[in-house]
Amino acid sequence: MGGGKLSAGVFESGVVVVYHFGRSAVSAERFTISGQAQVAHVAFAPDGVTLAAADNDGSVYLYDTASGRQTGTVAVAKPVDVVAFNPIGTLLATGDSSGSVRLWDARTLAPVGETMEARVRAEWPHSDHGGR
User: pTM here?
Assistant: First the structure.
């Protein structure tokens, strides 16, 4: 999938569709995520080839979008709400709704350090001025 831009769409049935926008054409590759869990979030590695798909059963599946093959699985203790790679693609971060974040070695899929727990709860700002 060299050149162009990539985008991914997530569907409730555990299907992720990767769209490749080339200069003159758009192509799509369909990935069915292992198991029957709902996919919560996807992220591309900086290489533009590796795709991480997080599900609500506590797993992150890695795919090679060029070959369509699953290349690894990370088992997380809680349902995963967000997944991201660092800018150079060496670390994978997983996060859940409680604010916990875990780092993983993107090559070996081994945990890096301890789980980081949120110290504050994020809330939407509100106005005490009655809408004025």
Answer: 0.73
Find, among 47, 83, 51, 46, the residue nearest to 64 by Cα.
51
71 located within any domain: yes
pLDDT of residue 130: 47
- Band of pLDDT at residue 77, cut at 50, 70 and 90: confident
Q: Is residue 102 part of a domain?
A: yes
Using alpha carbons, select from 83, 97, 6, 91 the residue that is nearest to residue 52: 83
Q: How far is CA 38 from CA 27, 54, 56, 62, in A?
A: 24, 9, 6, 15
Residue 131 lies in a domain: no
Q: What would the DSSP string read from start to end of 8-40?
A: EEEETTTEEEEEEE-SS-EEEEEEEPSSSPPEE
Q: What total of structural domains would you count in the chain?
A: 1
Q: What's the mean per-residue pLDDT of the chain? A: 78
* Percentage of the chain modeled with pLDDT above 70: 62
CATH number, position 65: 2.130.10.10
